[in-house]
TrEMBL record, chain A:
Keyword Signal found: yes
Source organism of the structure: Actinophytocola gossypii
Protein name: Extracellular solute-binding protein
Signal peptide: 1-19
Family annotation (Gene3D superfamilies): Periplasmic binding protein-like II (3.40.190.10)
Domain of life: Bacteria
């Protein structure tokens, strides 16, 4: 959430107009200087970039990279200040708010800042999901999709032989696991304000819903109604944890890791969390169940963008990004952070890692938030505040309420 | 005779006025820091808040011009506003009344001489000194139905049959948040009242004793009236604090969907954070401000706490 807000703040600054970007010219001794701003995912992020920059400069003595790492909490404010002071970084890594600067004419197009070979290697789903008016500005760095984590022991005890593929199977499996009793719940459904939009999107995308059409937010649709109705049925049947509407994601994942929940949707980094907190848990991953078993899930990606400050730095930027996307460098980055590579070659190389297998398979069918649409911020906020009400209110009312918020003039 | 006298008098007056003006001018450099501070941290933000509430702002903060009463209309049109207003009333009155009640008892107790009084007085400060977000977070974990220690305790002791989701539905969530609000407000209230108790002169109490007043009479007829000033301070500051309290509700009931557990302050936050309507939130903020001023005005008029008892 905070990210989204700050992204909005940054976009504000951009919108306030920075037609004239300062030309902080090329550095001394013919060296091209590149300012690189990246967010911190984990303890491994900063050392990774320091090493990468060092290795890059050894190969390219004519380019100097000034690295700056910021926490996710701070990066939007920092970027905000930089853009206001006409000192935008040359290369920026950010979520989908990064490519959104394209609409302010601040960015190089994706094909200008990376070699055609690298561009061809990137999974097109990710590039397409962050296009602004059909133009790609962002190059995906890390990607993630959601998949169903399940507790093998609980499934076996409940007599469920295979992880559910369809919604009917999900319901049946969750019911059997809940019937085990002893504080065990079949399916973990976090609809609390932390990330309710994600859980909802997994089901709604599965039912074929799309939150945006022709630039308009489309929330109150038959597909979404089908998805929310099924979620409500699960809640009413008592096969989820109690009070899904007010349960946040992070605490609920801990309950899964403690072995008290049969199934829950999660991200790749959760693999690392389980290994760290409860390595004895007997778990596995399966694709997110959908109404008829057709693959579909929610995807999220972060992006590199290059700021066009009128300094003709495309070539240097392209050299650096090509270096980053080199197989070894790129795989190390994703391995450190527990995400899945967004390149085809990276995906092949990561394919022999069993725990990432399922996420990689779901990648081509992943659908993204319409994060480049300015109305998405308020829509996502409305999901967080309101969708949990399906527990006690009719689905139609809740969807209409969210649609109204999404349509509110801003 | 009259004419010159009048002339002299008016000249005198003019002189005096000039002298006064000069004194004011001379005092200005010394007053300036305070004036700038008040202007900068009180008057400007209030003025700016009122100004913003009449502007049409985009969700990115771009100003699109005059909005008239539109933002206020949008606030008053909110379907959940009545419920939120009732919540706000219950929240403020309930928390302040309970804090004052507990504060009176605790202050009376801490005013007695007993071994370890100093240590106990310091212990009482802890909930006040600790960060409110931290305190609320501890309760959030403690009340969790899966691994909350408070829930486990209540089940083990036999008060509950099964863990209860205190913070999972509006009413219990709101009441739990109120309990925490009382918990963090009591120390301040206690110390204000304790300070008040210590100003009660000994000879007055002695006189009451000589006149044959029993303990209850002494308290209600002698001590309590002398606490008026302290009670006024404690009440007003608590009303403002409790009314504007966001962290407790945000941490404890923030995950509950809908607006059934919101006060105007937490609703304002949701309008900014989720709906991205800075202008609407400003309008609500102005209304909030007016309500606080009115409530305190009524309190001062009706209770007349500042009136001196002779």
């Amino acid at each position: 959430m905070r990210r989204v807000i700050k992204a909005a703040a940054v976009a504000t600054v951009a919108a306030l107009g920075l037609a004239a970007c300062g030309s902080e010219s090329g550095g001394e001794g013919g060296k091209t200087e590149l300012d690189l701003l990246v967010p911190i995912y984990s303890d491994k992020t900063k050392p990774y970039w320091e090493n990468l920059v060092k290795a890059f400069q050894e190969e390219n003595s004519d380019i100097q990279v000034n690295l700056e790492v910021q926490s996710w909490d701070n990066i939007y404010t920092v970027l905000d200040n930089k853009i206001q002071n006409q000192a935008a970084p040359d290369i920026l890594e950010l979520d989908a708010a990064g490519p959104a600067y394209g609409s302010e004419d601040l960015l190089y197009e994706a094909e200008e800042i990376v070699s055609p070979e690298t561009l061809a290697d990137i999974e097109p789903t990710f590039i397409d999901s962050a296009k602004i008016d059909g133009v790609a500005y962002g190059l995906p760095t890390v990607a993630s999709t959601r998949a169903l984590f399940y507790n093998k022991d609980l499934l076996t005890q409940a007599g469920v032989t295979a992880p559910p593929k369809t919604w009917d199977e999900l319901m049946a499996a969750a019911r059997k696991i809940s019937d085990l009793g002893g504080g065990v719940h079949g399916y973990g459904m976090p609809l609390g304000s932390e990330e309710a939009q994600a859980e909802t999107s997994i089901f709604a995308y599965g039912a074929g819903a799309s939150w945006e059409s022709d630039g308009k937010m489309t929330i109150d649709t038959p597909e979404a109604r089908e998805a929310l109705t099924f979620m409500k049925e699960m809640i009413d049947a008592g096969v989820t944890q109690p009070d899904p509407g007010a349960t946040d994601r992070t605490p609920l994942l801990d309950v899964f890791i403690q072995g008290k929940i049969g199934m829950i949707q999660g991200l790749p980094p959760i693999v690392g969390q389980i290994n760290e907190k409860n390595p004895d848990l007997n778990w596995d991953i399966a694709p997110s169940p959908t109404p008829d078993g057709e693959p579909s899930t929610l995807g999220v990606a972060d992006y590199f963008v290059g700021f066009d400050k009128g300094e003709e730095k495309q070539e240097a930027i392209s050299k650096f990004l090509d270096f980053f996307y080199q197989q070894d460098n790129y795989l190390e980055f994703n391995e450190n952070e527990g995400f899945i590579p967004a390149t085809k070659s990276g995906a092949e190389a990561a394919a022999d890692k069993p725990e990432l297998q399922v996420f990689l398979e779901t990648l081509p069918d992943a659908k993204f938030y319409p994060a480049t649409n300015p109305a998405w911020g308020a829509t996502s906020g409305a999901f967080k505040d309101l969708v949990g009400q399906i527990q006690s209110k009719p689905v139609d009312d809740v969807l209409a309420q969210i649609q109204a918020k999404a349509d509110a003039p801003a | 005779m009259t004419a010159p006298t009048t002339a002299r008098r008016s000249r005198n007056q003019a002189l005096r006025r000039r002298a006064r003006r000069q004194t004011t001018l001379h005092a200005l450099p010394w007053l300036a820091p305070a004036l700038i501070l008040i202007g900068g941290v009180v008057l400007f933000p209030v003025g700016y808040m009122i100004y913003t509430s009449f502007r049409d702002l985009t969700r990115f903060g771009t100003d699109r011009g005059w909005a008239g009463w539109e933002n206020y209309e949008r606030v008053l049109d909110l379907g959940h506003l009545p419920r939120v207003l009732v919540n706000t009333g219950v929240w403020v009155v309930g928390v302040v009344a309970l804090s004052i009640g507990f504060g009176l008892v605790l202050a009376q107790f801490l005013n007695k001489r007993f071994p370890g009084r100093k240590i106990l007085r310091m212990v009482v400060i802890v909930p006040w000194a600790a960060s409110v977000v931290m305190t609320s977070t501890i309760f959030v974990y403690g009340l969790d139905p899966f691994y909350g220690i408070i829930n486990k305790f209540l089940v083990d002791v036999g008060i509950l049959d099964a863990p209860f989701g205190f913070l999972k539905s509006p009413l219990p969530g709101f009441l739990s948040a109120m309990a925490v609000a009382v918990f963090v407000s009591v120390p301040f209230t206690t110390f204000v009242l304790l300070a008040g108790l210590q100003t009660v002169p000994h000879d007055v109490l002695e006189a009451a004793q000589i006149d044959g007043a029993n303990r209850t009479q002494t308290y209600w007829r002698v001590v309590f009236p002398m606490l008026r000033g302290a009670l006024a301070v404690a009440t007003i500051i608590n009303v403002i604090n409790v009314f504007n309290n966001l962290p407790i509700l945000k941490t404890m009931t923030g995950a509950i969907p809908g607006y059934d557990a919101d006060t105007t302050t937490s609703l304002m936050f949701k309008i900014i954070q989720s709906d991205r309507q800075i202008d609407t939130a400003s309008a609500l903020s102005v209304l909030n401000f007016v309500v606080v001023v009115v409530v305190i005005g009524i309190y001062l008029r009706v209770v007349r706490p500042m009136r001196q008892e002779d």
